[in-house]
Amino acid sequence: MPAFPRFTALAQSLPPTVPFVGPETQERARGAEFSARLGANENGFGPAPSVIEAINREASLSWRYADPENHDLRAGLGEHLGLAPEQVVVGEGIDGLLGLIVRLIVEPGTPVVTSLGAYPTFNFHVAGFGGRLVTVPYRDDHEDLDALLDAVHRENAPLVYLSNPDNPMGTWHSAEAVTAFARALPETTMLALDEAYGETAPASALPAISALAGMPNVLRFRTFSKAYGLAGQRVGYVFGVEESVAMFHRVRNHFGVNRLGQAAALAALQDQPWLDHILALTSASRDRIGSIARSHGFGPIPSATNFVTIDCGRDAAYAKAILDDLVSRGVFIRMPGVAPLNRCIRISTGPDAEIGLFEAALAEVVAELG
Question: Angle, nearest 10°, between helix axes 259-270 and 71-81?
Fold first, then answer.
């Protein structure tokens, strides 16, 4: 009998987890494509025409490797943020960058603090490096800053994760509250502050760049996947104090962000009028989704993101029945995974036609479930 390859004991102990089952997987299982793709918090309105032009210009040079330093994009981001390019690192979306910060900090048994029900991909990375997740429940559908801080001190945790605005609930804390939380952390605890939905949030939700400047234990993660409409290109970035940011260069995949992705992200950053256009469409779509929810007696939770989480007013079984029935009708949505958040379903904003399909399907589902 041949010898088995020598995978680590940790790797062999892990389940084959997929943090999110993609819509494509579900389409293959059901043998049909979705008619409304409203579950992955993508920007269904699409990227700017100027971004498509940039991709087309670069397409013929796809035989070339991308710039491993991401020089032009980092320079553009530095100018946009008012930071030196050395304070910015580009990576394969926030997901990839979260994996790197976990790799830089977490060893087997390291306690890592997050909220129960928060972004599962972060948990996936922590498990992959043998960390010990310490979770605290949400409070009133918000991540509980006080409980997170208490857990950090109790566990002497070197890493804590916070998303603001939050996924999966869409709620947010004020910039002042987030700044106070960051300043209350031990200097030896790194805050991974996930601001994936920063562009769709009110200005009062995001700490000014200067508010957290000079703090080596704060890293802010942002992405081109949401408001900029480039989820398929996998481009995210992290910024903070240069000495902390520079640690990413020790472990990052230097060719991880492809040539088209770099060109697309830079073009998107330079087309702020299109971003304003998308934000207006997103706001209107949020309002429409909220109105649809209220028409059925459901409670849309105020959102600072490009999705609306809807409290279905009953238990998780009822919310799951709604989700399953919508999926069976070709409407792809998702829902939070743990109690008490799983009394809800979550609908991404999108084009009017797709929201209309959701509206019609939801009416049928609610009528059938009673």
Answer: 20
